[in-house]
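During the reporting period the student researcher (J.K.) took over the structure-prediction task from the postdoctoral fellow and processed the backlog of single-chain submissions. One of the processed entries is reproduced below for the supervisory committee.
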Amino acid sequence: MIGETAGDTTGASPADGNGAPKTVLTDLVDGVAIITLNRPERHNALDDESSALAQDAVRWAVDDMDARAILLQGAGKSFSSGRDTAQLGRRTPGDSDYQFILRSQKTRILLMEATKPVIGALKGAVLGGACEMALSCDYRVAADNIKMGFPEVGFGIMTDTGGAPLATILAGPSRAKYMLMTGERIGAEQALAWGLVDEVVTPDELDERAFAVAARLAAGPPLSNAMIKQVVDGMWAGQVRAGLGAELLAQATLFKSADHVEAKLAASEKRPPRYTGT
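J.K. obtained the following structure tokens:
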């Protein structure tokens, strides 16, 4: 994994003060800011702590003047399985669903609107919020073992950080609705054919290839890269912003629905859910 043994440029280290592994690692190599999700035993599922660290890492990568490209990757077998289901719908005291979703959306917008190219190195599970993170990258290199999808519908909710608008823009409305409504996980070749990833390599080739793409872009003229990204993204940025606003309101409503409560209860009782549309 690129960057796993190099020095940590943000002052973080592979372990925290108590000796526990850091759940998000950062590094800077040849002008590439590397952000590594580091909960391999949970397929890099994002709990409250790792989500907060990932948001901090994105801000560092966007703001650091020595970073000219950003590479997102995951430790272990997967990129990320998304939100840790053990904390799904759980909020800290005083935090509303609306505020929680909006905070995550702000980080997603920061990443999408970064003046630096963002590369995603995808492997294994690329699900839920992590799939949304992947789709927000400027270029996605995927291992041929990826399983990409939006499982939120199985919990009586939906995407809330850009999955709906990004999948619609990249794959088209019919395919986006199919993925969002079924939660089906698609493989690398299907994702490539649908425009959800940009190239497919073997798992052994992934790290080297993704870093090579990021390093090549980091070596280019940063002002030109920034202007090119702004011009291209400007053609659909309004659609994504509108989609994020719609997702925010829809998801805040769905979190309070009886169907969401039923979906969680059914999962805990290992039975099919009985939805009522309320």
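The committee noted the following: Residues 106 and 238 are 15 Å apart (CA to CA).
J.K. will present the remaining backlog at the next meeting.
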